[in-house]
Amino acid sequence: MKEEEVNFAKNERFQLTMIPGTVAKSMRTCVVWQFIRFLVINIKMLVVVSKSH
């Protein structure tokens, strides 16, 4: 298997489906990281809304 094909797997519906690596899986399931992302997105939304009003 080629190195660039490590994160891909065959599926019934798709020929190649990307599979997340260990870092991506841990970031998606980490509650602390999700809370930080939530705060950053909310701050960005506040900035955009404050510019429009």
Record the SSE blueprint.
Elements: E1 8-9, E2 17-18, H1 22-29, H2 31-52
Describe the structure in your own words.
The chain is built from 2 helices and 2 strands. It is elongated and about 50 Å long. The chain has helices spanning 22-29, 31-52, and strands at 8-9, 17-18. Helix content is 57%, strand content 8%. It has a two-stranded antiparallel sheet with strand order 1-2. The protein has one domain (3-52). It is mainly alpha-helical. The protein starts with 7 loop residues before the first strand and ends with a helix.
Bin the helical content. 55-70%
Return the domain count: 1
Instruction: Summarize the main sheet.
Output: 2 strands, antiparallel
Number of helices: 2
H/E series = EEHH
> How far apart are the termini?
55 Å
Low-pLDDT segments? none
Q: What is the count of β-strands?
A: 2
| Mean pLDDT metric | 82
- Rg, alpha carbons: 18 Å
- What structural class should be given to the helix and strand makeup? mainly alpha
- Strand order within the widest beta sheet: 1-2
Beta-strand content bin: 5-15%
* Shape estimate: elongated
